[in-house]
Design a protein that fits this description.
Blueprint: H1 6-17, E1 22-25, H2 27-33, E2 42-45, H3 49-55, E3 59-63, E4 68-73, E5 76-82, E6 84-86, E7 98-100, H4 104-109, E8 119-120, E9 126-127, H5 132-138, E10 140-141, H6 147-153, H7 156-168, E11 171-172, H8 174-183, H9 192-203, H10 208-217, H11 231-236, H12 243-253, H13 258-264, H14 269-287, H15 292-297, H16 300-313, H17 322-330, H18 344-351, H19 357-371, H20 379-393
Parallel strand pairs: 2-5, 10-11
Antiparallel strand pairs: 1-2, 1-8, 3-4, 4-5, 6-7, 8-9
Helix pairs in contact: 6-8, 7-9, 7-10, 9-12, 12-14, 12-16, 14-16, 16-17
The structure holds adenosine-5'-triphosphate and magnesium ion.
Magnesium ion binds at residues 26-27, 39-40.
Subunit structure: Homodimer.
Family: Belongs to the tRNA nucleotidyltransferase/poly(A) polymerase family. Bacterial CCA-adding enzyme type 3 subfamily.
Pfam family, one: PolyA_pol_RNAbd
């Protein structure tokens, strides 16, 4: 089975034709060996960044200081990174300097885990100086070289270990697991944005429950800005169909004030909006089963995760399945204001009155009347309903 997209293969081929080495590296090679669909494909090359730019006519400098050039091939963006080594790490997060080198082995040595330190040539030869293939077979996460040193160099690798445990379900090799525990406090040197990116991936892993247990057993959770105490409850809400569902359970189980959570993990406005809705929906769910109001007000995604969390926290109470929620929501006469068959212009026409605040108020009333089945959502019925109500109130 050939590896990579036609575009990525062409990039490798052209680099080789120009006299350089070029190979596939990183997670896509690992996933390929696991028989999984590769995510982003990374190419490593002996060509220096300026040389890469000479080979291809259409490139972008996306991370040239780290050796990465984006090559456009057949309209597809392909990342090409020059073989590099990393200097010392004074701050446990970023190398003080990177050096471009011509040796692939040097490049693979700087990578985090044996399963990620593999390269694949265009003709399918696997270059594996650290026994990555064997570890993949054994389903083991093993640091390249001395685990303690590697975690001390870059503490992000600590949380990456746990996120790979979540996505791959691999066990953590003994020395790596010990180093994980011993170096957990170093995670404090890593920016929350980078931690959040790994947590996002952790949440959607198939083995998230196991990963959450590892997180707690290695005491890593104590080093994170916020973490729920009742880890079992959080696990009971899994699996998560999106990172946000994971964060929602994290927030509710941890009983965190949404604002505190947003600040601690620097969440985006979009994330905040979703989590605020879940927080409100959950309060309403505590008061009773979801009814028309909630089914209308909240998105299917918000309803789903809120109900799931409720069920995990109160397993003896009646709950609705995803399918039931979807069906009930689908049965509402309208899904949003936009579905209403009339607008302000109609109201002005029917009354002969000019626009103003009253329009919004009456449209809201019409929306509620349709939602609660007091009026059918057609222009004709809404006109009748409106004129009689309007007259009554006049
Ligand atoms: P995914 O499938 O989630 O993208 P990945 O292994 O490709 O997983 P990336 O974050 O995309 O992970 O990184 C690409 C490669 O870069 C890794 O496979 C690894 O070889 C290397 N790498 C990434 N982060 C680090 C790190 N902090 N320390 C050492 N090597 C790293
Ligand atoms: Mg990747």
């Amino acid at each position: 089975m050939s590896f990579g997209t036609a575009a990525s293969r062409e990039v490798v081929r052209q680099l080789m034709d120009a006299g350089y080495e070029a190979v596939f590296v990183g997670g896509s090679v690992r996933d390929h060996l696991l028989g999984k669909e590769a995510s982003d494909i990374d190419i490593a090359t002996s060509a220096m960044p300026t040389e890469v730019k000479e080979v291809f006519s259409h490139t972008f400098d996306v991370g040239i200081q780290h050796g990465t050039v984006l090559v456009m091939m057949y309209g597809e963006p392909i990342e090409v990174t020059t073989y590099r080594t990393e200097g010392t790490y004074a701050d446990h997060r970023r190398p003080d300097e990177v050096h471009f080198v011509r040796s692939l082995e040097e490049d693979l040595k700087r990578r985090d885990f044996t399963m990620n330190a593999l390269a694949l040539t265009l003709d399918g030869l696997c270059i594996d100086p650290f026994g990555g293939q064997e570890d993949i077979k054994k389903r083991l996460i093993r640091a390249v070289g001395n685990a303690d040193d590697r975690f001390q160099e870059d503490a992000l690798r600590i949380i990456r270990t746990v996120r790979f445990a979540s996505t791959l379900g691999f066990a953590i090799e003994k020395d790596t697991a010990n180093a994980l525990k011993n170096n957990a406090p170093l995670i404090g040197h890593i920016s929350v944005e980078r931690i959040k990116t790994e947590m996002d991936k952790l949440f959607i892993g198939k083995y998230v429950e196991r990963a959450l247990t590892i997180l707690v057993e290695s005491n890593l959770h104590r080093e994170l800005p916020l973490f729920p105490q009742e880890i079992g409850m959080l696990s009971a809400c899994a699996p998560f169909s999106s990172p946000l569902h994971g964060w929602a359970a994290f927030m509710i189980v941890g009983k965190f004030n949404p604002q505190d959570l947003f600040k601690a993990y620097k969440l985006s406005n979009q994330d905040k909006q979703f989590l605020t809705a879940v927080s409100e929906a959950f309060q309403e769910r505590l008061a009773g089963k979801f009814g028309t109001d909630q089914l209308y007000k909240y998105t299917e995604s918000v309803l789903q995760i809120t109900e799931r969390i409720f069920h995990a926290l109160y397993p003896n109470k009646e709950y609705m399945t995803i399918e039931e929620l979807r069906e009930m929501k689908g049965k509402l006469p309208i899904q949003s204001k936009e579905d209403l068959c009339i607008n302000g212009k109609d109201l002005m026409e029917w009354t002969g009155q000019r626009g103003g605040k009253w329009l919004g108020e009456w449209l809201y009333r019409a929306e509620r009347a349709v939602l609660y089945g007091q009026c059918i959502n057609t222009s004709k019925h809404l006109k009748e309903w409106f004129l009689s109500e309007f007259k009554r109130q006049a």
